[in-house]
Amino acid sequence: MTVTIATWNINSVRLRAGLVSRLLREEAPDILCLQECKSPLEKIPFDIFAALGYGHWVARGQKGYNGVAILSRLPLEDAGHVDWCGRGDARHVAARLENGVTIHNFYIPAGGDVPDREVNDKFGHKLDFLTELRDWSRAEAPARAILVGDLNIAPREDDVWNHRQLLKVVSHTPIEIEHLAAAQEAGGWVDVTRADIPEGQLYSWWSYRSPNWDAADKGRRLDHIWATPDIAGAAHGSRILRAARGWDQPSDHAPVFARFDF
Predict the structure, then answer these.
(1) Which end of the chain has the smaller Cβ count within 10 Å, N or C?
(2) Which of 112, 107, 134 is nearest to 123 (CA)?
(3) Global pTM?
(4) Nearest CA-CA partner of 72 in 102, 92, 112
């Protein structure tokens, strides 16, 4: 059985329901994980997605901020969430497939503009979230699990358009990369995308501030698909749908895909 999973920071699911529908029609992933839905659950247009064959879903909503959802053509059950940092934010939801694989969908805090927790609470929140993710991964000893989402960190030098220029820019600072690596190591998580595409520049986000994002190509790989070692070897076909960044009224993120042979 081959299952295709996609992850996409949609930056308002209600505003971009048409783009979600386009992705579901044209790419037809079995499972689509969305972040930054920016909507309470009762206002997410699940009926539109169900009409396209995605009648199974789990989600956590929040008015105007955050929000995560998992849309699926395959049956799944709600596997809960963690209230990271005790803030009540809708930044995590998990779903379990009938074969026992658990999918964790994350929206890690962006961290603001200044990479110093002493003067920027948002950056401190991000680091604390990552520390909790590390401790959770260590305590839970995850198995048959996939972790996806907007992790808001581009960890490798070739995950950003210019490593040197971005070393002091939030999303690529050494302290963020160290915290993410500690969380990854604690759970034994395998970066599926880079296992499939080990070399070369690779981006999933391009700023709205760029007047010509495509030509400038100043991107970062902020969106990730990880898997536990017991199923990471089943992953293949990783790709980033860069073209979606150029759709009408796009998100500033592009969808990331991987296929798993279970």
Answers:
(1) N
(2) 112
(3) 0.98
(4) 102
Domain with residue 251: its CATH number is 3.60.10.10
What total number of domains does the chain contain? 1
- C-alpha span between 241 and 229 (Å, rounded): 25
Q: Which amino acid, residue 197?
A: I
How far is Cα 34 from Cα 194, in angstroms, rounded to an integer? 21
Domain that holds residue 178: 2-261
pLDDT, tens only, 124-153: 999 999 999 999 999 988 999 999 999 999
Tokens of 209: 């501030």
Tell me, what amino acid is at 128?
Answer: D
- Position 132, amino acid: E
| Residue 219 structure tokens | 């991107």
Sign of CA dihedral 85, 106, 156, 136: positive
Q: Is 82 helix (H, G, I), strand (E, B) or coil?
A: coil
